[in-house]
Structure formats: structure tokens, C-alpha cells
Write a structure and sequence with these properties.
heterodimer, A: Arc Repressor Mutant, subunit A, Nucleotidyltransferase, domain 5, 18 helices, B: 339 residues, Rossmann fold, 2 domains, SBP_2_dom (chain B), Peripla_BP_I (chain B), signal (chain B), Sugar ABC transporter substrate-binding protein (chain B), carbohydrate binding (chain B)
């Protein structure tokens, strides 16, 4: 991890408290931010710092505006303590989820609470520039409506595939590889330059897992396995409360695991994903094995994975068999992971898992049947209730957790804004230069396409 | 007709057939004799009256009793008080239009936590989730309505024209969708057009806000207002000030229908089908009470209403005769003056 430049000390004498105490300032701020301590007494107990130090750090945090200490709490004998509160309205987080067929955007405060969200249909196969322009246009609308005077502290984007990276960095200064069609397009640079805020890119599995961890069923668990079932099948893993990304950010690609169904051996994606469900459903409709789906075809409708899922929920035997097979194959893979990881909770998500109960039932049956009794004794397996919102909420939490990570926080806390982080200042300049170069000399900048059309 | 938009959490719209009641469903509901309460933003608008009519007709068939219909007067405090009070009545379900966003979110969440099935109309406070916090949202395809309104304004706009967008200040899913869709349609189909947005806080302020928009941009060639009542306030204010510019909006209220038919400033309307939305929410409610699977979002397509089809559209939407002024404008009756 690159080290941020150290802020210069004062010319003479000792450094100020602000300069020398950023670690304890950060520790106290995070206790307040996460609601682990809301009074001076609780801060002393949780931080294991002395009364004078806590008092000094609180005064500093109040002075620079990160916390407020005003409301009175409940007295436990004697004077009622003052409550300390983190100011979640100091900045906002812009979030977006890019899916194969839908774009979601939202704006969150610094607790990760969404003020609003909007979803619309897109074709991710269209050119990267038009989708990037649409994201920018919607972000502009969100800012104008909800935060016209509030600085953007971070932008977090969820994308369909894994976001690979060669080394962990505090702030992205170029667009990492995430989809072949976006290769070379300066998406991150565009956003950093326009909004002057750091950008995070994560896979949809990672952001949905974070959303479920912080706002869904995973709020009170330490270890959680999140499985998204769609065209691709992927897993997100929360270990000891933190997202496990893997060395290259590609953890959880369980859709690549080989599985066997009858005499066929292929990947889990191919034999249990929504493409298989749609294909088998169409076949059942055409051969008349499913009267319900055959009727849908006769009426001029289409038979896709959603229709098969709805038919299964309505009791159509052929559709139930297709989804049962998908669920059992997913269950085998999940059981293997459960035996390895011993999670508290397994959550199934994605359109296929959320539009019917059959996949959940088949996964439960398989996992309970194939796992060690100790693994399943207190294990809960359920469906996500968050839908596409999990991705947006999780994206916001990716940015917030990164901004308030002690390694990042220590270098901006005394300036009271992550936008003043020395490393981000240099990243911002680099992004601006790359963008300017792309506009001025498109042909001479490898991998960066020329700018066309008008800015939104 | 297709649904253009996505639901509040990115859901795909379920077709109305998905929530149709079978004879078995109706018989089961009649046996169960459910009790339902309704909490609306207002009871005075035509839209609200038609929603209620659709709900009542469907519940009537199912022997489901409506124990109370509350008018919140657009006030979040009134809605919170009503929901908290109704929880004590222990109805089987409550149908509600959240009149605000975060202000009323917790009051709605308390309803579901009390074991009462919650059905939402038109708006979902941010953070409330289908399945856990409410059963389903039933609304118009508001994204599609915004696109219809944009398409109506398009032929009236000169190349390079400026267009005003009068949007609602409050956080409301339906009006947000209309505004975003209008903007997107213009950016996609008329990139030469420049949009100028102004927000109004309440219906009464819409007229002065429209004038401020025109005064701030003297080259304004058209105006979009996110629903008909403020649109009519804007039309009246513009007319008083001597401004003539085409206006498009959403919802075919009585005044808007008269204005549209008389070749006034209104040039076209994207209209909801409130009666059918009322039917849809009542059907979804009955299915949920019978423990049947229900979709997260049920959406009904909007209708494109122009001067040419305003009479039949009015009848289709409001299930009653069009106002006499509309019939006169359409030359379907003779104007005897003052009647």
C-alpha cells in the first residue's frame, strides 16, 4: 500500500495535538461514527484512553466540525451526560450499480443511508461513453435535488464482473479492468475530474454482500456467505465482519466450479444459471411438458427464466423440476463452502432466487444434507429482502468503510475532509491530466478513446 | 402496452394478470372477511376518488370491509398519527400513500412490524423494502408518463429551444421518475434543447414558480410540470402574465381536460388510470392476505391524451361523462352559452 506524504510539522516547537494525535482522533471518531460510544464515559471505556485525552480529542473533533456534542442522554445517577454524534451530513456519497440490463443510482449520507435511489433500463453492451454520460447526468440530478451545497466525499460504483487490481491502493487513479467493452475508457478519471472526489469500483457481488452485511439480514453476524443467482452465480464472503476480496479482487467466482447433472459436466453457471433455466423452460413449453409455459407461448408471450420461475411458484411441475435441479447444484457448491467456512448466515439473492421459493428450498435441503452437523446447527439460510437496493447501499458502505479506515483516516482527519488527503490531491491531479490528454491528443494516448459529443 | 420504468428498487413490473383474482381466491376472501384501512394523501382530488372507487368495488366483491379511509391532507404528521392510531384497530391490512420520504418511513415500518399487511400506492419511502417492510407497491408507470409528456412537447419546440421543468421539491418516487424520464427523453431525442429546472414546494406556489422560470429564461419555448394540479396553477399564472407557451403534464384532471380540449396552453398529457390502480392494489391486498405470492411492484401503463382523444380518454380514466366544456370543444354538443 503506498504511503501518503506526511503533513509538514510546524516550523518550531512540538507538533500540535491535531498533527500528533491523528491515530487517537481517528479511533474516537470511529467509535462515535459506528455508535459504539455516544458519551464521554463510554468513549473512555471503549477507547481505553484517559479522561484528559478523550476530552482533548473530542474538543478537537468538535472544533473541526466532525462531531457535535449537544443533546442530553439518560442520566444513570447524577448529571445527564451529553451525547456525542458524528455529523453524517458533512458530505455525500454518490453510488451506482451497472448491471447487464439496468442502471441504478443513489445518494447516501456518511452513515450509508440512501436519501433516494433511481433505477432504469440500459443495455450495458452499448458504448461505454453513452452509459458513462448517463451516470454523470443522473449524478448531476441527484446532487441538484438532494445536495446542492454538500461536497461529494466519494463515488462508489458496482459493476457486473470482478474488478481486478494488481495492488491495493487507497484511491484509484485509473480505471481498472472490469468489462472487455469498457477496456481503455477513462471512467474513473471522468468521475474524479468532474466531482473532485475519490472513486471505488467493486463487483456487484461485493457491493450486494456489503449491503446485506450493513443493512440487511447480515447486520448482527460475523461470518456470512452471500450467493447471487442469475446468469452468473457468484458468492461474497464476510469474514469476521469484513469483506474478503481475495488477492486480485476475484474471490467468490463459484460459477466456475465444475458440476455434474446427469451425464453432463460443465460449470455451475452453465448448468444452474438463468440461461439454463430459460433454455429448459422454453423446451418444456415447446414439447408441451409444461402446459402453463406452452400457454404463455401460444398467447404470444416469451418464455424466459422469470416466466419459468413464476410458473414454478404457481405449481407447474416441469418448471419446479428445472428450478429444483438448479437449486440442488447450487446447494452442492454452497455446502462445500459452508463446510469450509462455517458461516452464521447464508443469503441467496438475485432475480432467480427472489422470484420463487424453490431454489431456496433445494439449497437448504442440499446444504443441510451435505454439511457437518456442527456447521448447520445454528446456520440460517434465507433470501435477501433488499433486491437491487443491496448493491447501492453496499456501494455506499464500500466508500465509507474505505474513507474511515484508520490507514486512510489518519491522513485527512485533521483537515476534516478526505478531499484534503494528500494522496487524493495527487490522484486528482493525475486523473485531470489523463482526461485532458485524452481530450487534446486522443490518437496519441494509448487506450483512451477520443471525446465525442457534448458534455451532459 | 409496455412498462418503461423500473420499480423503486430496480424491480421489473409485474403485469396486471399476475394479480388477477380467481373464483377460488374470491370465495376464500369472502369466507375470511378481512378488514382493511386506507390512508391517502388527500380525498379531495379526482385521482384519489377514482382510486377509492376501484378499491371499494374490488373489496366489495371479496366481502372485505373497509373500516376507515383517512385523509392526511398531505401532512406527514397527520399520516404518522393515523397509522399509529390504526395499528390499535388491528386491521388485516393497510393501504397507504406515503406523503413524504424519511419523515413517514418509520410509521409505515411500525405497521408491518405489528403484523399488519402494508400495501403502498405510488411512493415508497427510501429504505423500506418489499417483503420485509411492505407487501407490494402499486403505481402507474411514471417513467413512461414522463416520456409521453416529453413527446407531446417535442413538435412544439423550435430547434435549440429552452424548456422549463417545474419539479416537485419533496422526495417522491412518482414525481422523480416523471422528471428523470422527461429529461432523459429530451437528452436522447432533442439534444439541441436546454432544460431549466425549478422546484415548487406546494401546489399554490407552482404559479409563481412558473413565472419565475419564464422571467429567468425569457427564451423559454415550453414547460413541463410533474402533475396536472400545479400545471393548471402554472397555466393560469402564465395566461395572466400574457405568456403563451406550450405546457405538458401528467394526469387528466377535470381542469386539465378542459384546458387541453379548448386548445389552450396544455398540449398533451400522460394520464394514469387511477380506477384500475385501485383495483390492482385491492387485488394484490387480497392475494397477500390469502398468503399468495405477490409481486414487489405492480405497474399500470399510462395513456397518451391529446386534444384528439380527450373525450374517450376522460371516460376511460374517470368512468364518467367528460365535462360539458370538453364536449363543446370537441363539437360533440352545441354550446348554448353559460350552461
Amino acid at each position: 500500500m503506498p504511503l501518503a506524504p506526511t503533513p509538514p510539522n510546524r516550523g518550531k516547537g512540538r507538533p500540535t495535538t491535531r498533527e500528533s494525535a491523528s491515530a487517537s482522533l481517528g479511533a474516537i471518531l470511529n467509535l462515535i461514527r459506528l455508535g459504539k460510544a455516544t458519551t464521554r464515559q463510554e468513549l473512555e471505556r471503549e477507547s481505553e484512553l484517559g479522561r484528559a485525552v478523550v476530552s482533548d480529542r473530542l474538543a478537537t473533533l468538535s472544533e473541526i466540525g466532525l462531531v457535535v456534542e449537544s443533546e442530553l442522554g439518560i442520566a444513570s445517577g447524577g448529571r445527564a451526560p451529553r451525547l456525542v454524534r458524528f455529523r453524517t451530513d458533512l458530505g455525500c456519497i454518490l453510488v451506482a450499480t451497472l448491471d447487464q440490463s439496468a442502471l441504478g443510482v443513489g445518494i447516501a449520507d456518511l452513515s450509508g443511508r440512501l436519501s433516494t435511489e433511481h433505477h432504469e433500463a440500459i443495455d450495458l453492451g452499448a458504448d461505454a461513453r453513452s452509459i458513462s454520460d448517463r451516470v454523470v447526468s443522473l449524478f448531476d440530478w441527484l446532487i441538484a435535488k438532494h445536495a446542492p451545497t454538500m461536497p461529494v466525499w466519494g463515488i462508489s460504483i458496482s459493476v457486473p464482473g470482478p474488478v481486478t487490481h494488481d495492488e491495493e491502493t487507497l484511491f484509484l487513479e485509473y480505471t481498472p479492468s472490469f468489462l472487455p467493452a469498457w477496456e481503455g475508457f477513462p471512467f474513473v478519471e471522468t468521475l474524479v475530474e468532474r466531482y473532485g472526489a475519490p472513486v471505488w469500483l467493486r463487483s456487484s457481488i461485493e457491493t450486494m454482500t456489503m449491503g446485506e452485511r450493513f443493512s440487511g439480514a447480515g447486520q448482527s453476524v460475523r461470518d456470512m456467505l452471500f450467493v447471487k443467482v442469475g446468469k452468473r452465480i457468484g458468492a461474497g464472503l464476510i469474514c469476521d465482519g469484513r469483506l474478503h476480496r481475495g488477492t486480485k479482487g476475484a474471490a467468490g467466482l463459484i460459477g466456475q466450479m465444475p458440476v455434474q447433472a446427469g451425464d453432463r459436466t460443465s460449470t455451475l453457471d452453465a448448468l444452474a444459471g438463468s440461461d439454463m433455466i430459460a433454455r429448459e423452460g422454453l423446451l418444456a413449453a415447446q414439447t408441451g411438458r409444461s402446459p402453463l409455459l406452452a400457454d404463455t407461448l401460444r398467447r404470444g408471450g416469451t418464455v424466459g427464466a422469470i416466466e419459468v420461475s413464476q410458473a414454478a411458484q404457481a405449481g407447474d411441475p416441469a418448471s419446479m423440476e428445472i428450478l429444483g435441479l438448479s437449486g440442488r447444484l447450487i446447494g452442492h457448491a454452497v455446502a462445500m463452502l459452508a463446510n469450509m467456512l462455517n458461516p452464521d448466515l447464508i443469503i441467496l439473492s438475485g432475480t432467480m432466487a427472489q422470484t420463487n421459493d424453490l431454489i431456496l428450498a433445494a439449497v437448504r435441503e442440499t446444504v443441510y444434507g451435505e454439511s457437518h452437523p456442527l456447521v448447520t446447527r445454528d446456520l440460517i439460510i434465507g433470501k435477501s429482502q433488499m433486491g437491487s437496493s443491496a448493491g447501492l447501499v453496499g456501494a455506499a458502505m464500500v466508500a465509507i468503510e474505505s474513507l474511515f479506515d484508520p490507514a486512510c483516516l489518519k491522513d485527512w482527519i485533521v483537515q476534516a475532509s478526505p478531499l484534503a488527503h494528500p494522496l487524493f490531491q495527487s490522484v486528482r491531479q493525475t486523473c485531470g491530466e489523463r482526461k485532458t490528454m485524452a481530450m487534446a491528443r486522443p490518437a496519441e494516448v494509448p487506450g483512451i478513446p477520443a471525446q465525442t459529443g457534448s458534455a451532459p | 402496452m409496455t412498462i418503461s420504468g423500473l420499480g423503486p428498487h430496480g424491480e421489473r413490473a409485474a403485469p396486471a394478470e399476475r394479480i388477477a383474482l380467481t373464483e377460488t381466491d374470491i370465495a376464500a376472501a369472502q369466507e375470511a372477511r378481512f378488514r382493511v384501512a386506507i390512508v391517502l394523501h388527500t380525498l379531495s382530488s379526482d385521482w384519489a376518488k377514482q382510486q377509492i372507487a376501484g378499491i371499494m368495488a374490488t373489496f366489495g366483491d371479496c366481502a372485505t370491509a373497509v373500516i376507515e379511509v383517512v385523509d392526511c391532507g398531505f401532512a406527514p404528521e397527520a399520516q404518522i398519527a393515523a397509522l399509529d392510531r390504526l395499528r390499535g384497530e388491528k386491521p388485516d391490512a393497510i393501504i397507504s400513500i406515503p406523503v413524504a420520504n424519511s419523515a413517514v418511513a418509520e410509521a409505515h415500518r411500525r405497521v408491518s412490524k405489528a403484523g399488519i399487511r402494508l400495501l403502498l400506492l405510488d411512493n415508497v419511502p427510501t429504505g423500506l423494502l418489499p417483503g420485509s417492510d411492505y407487501v407490494a407497491l402499486v403505481s402507474a408507470d411514471n417513467f413512461g408518463l414522463g416520456m409521453i409528456a416529453a413527446a407531446f412537447l417535442d413538435p412544439r419546440l423550435a430547434r435549440g429551444a429552452a424548456v422549463g421543468v417545474l419539479s416537485y421539491h419533496a422526495e417522491f418516487y412518482a414525481t422523480n421518475e416523471r422528471e428523470i424520464a422527461f429529461n432523459k427523453w429530451m437528452m436522447t431525442n432533442r439534444p439541441d434543447v436546454t432544460l431549466h429546472v425549478r422546484k415548487f414546494d406546494n401546489i399554490q406556489a407552482a404559479g409563481s414558480d412558473a413565472l419565475a422560470l419564464v422571467d429567468g429564461h425569457r427564451d423559454l419555448g415550453g414547460l413541463f410540470v410533474v402533475w396536472d394540479t400545479p400545471a393548471m396553477e402554472a397555466v393560469k399564472a402564465l395566461r395572466r402574465a400574457g405568456h403563451v407557451l406550450p405546457v405538458s403534464t401528467v394526469d387528466l384532471g377535470r381542469e386539465a381536460a378542459i384546458e387541453l380540449s379548448s386548445d389552450g396552453l396544455l398540449c398533451g398529457i400522460g394520464a394514469q388510470q387511477p380506477y384500475l390502480q385501485g383495483v390492482a392494489v385491492a387485488q394484490t391486498c387480497v392475494l397477500a392476505l390469502l398468503a399468495k405470492q405477490t409481486p414487489d411492484w405492480v405497474a399500470l401503463p399510462g395513456l397518451a391524451v391529446s386534444r384528439d382523444n380527450v373525450v374517450e380518454s376522460f371516460q376511460k380514466i374517470w368512468r364518467k361523462q367528460a365535462p360539458r366544456e370538453v364536449l363543446v370543444s370537441a363539437k360533440l354538443v352545441t354550446d348554448h352559452g353559460g350552461r
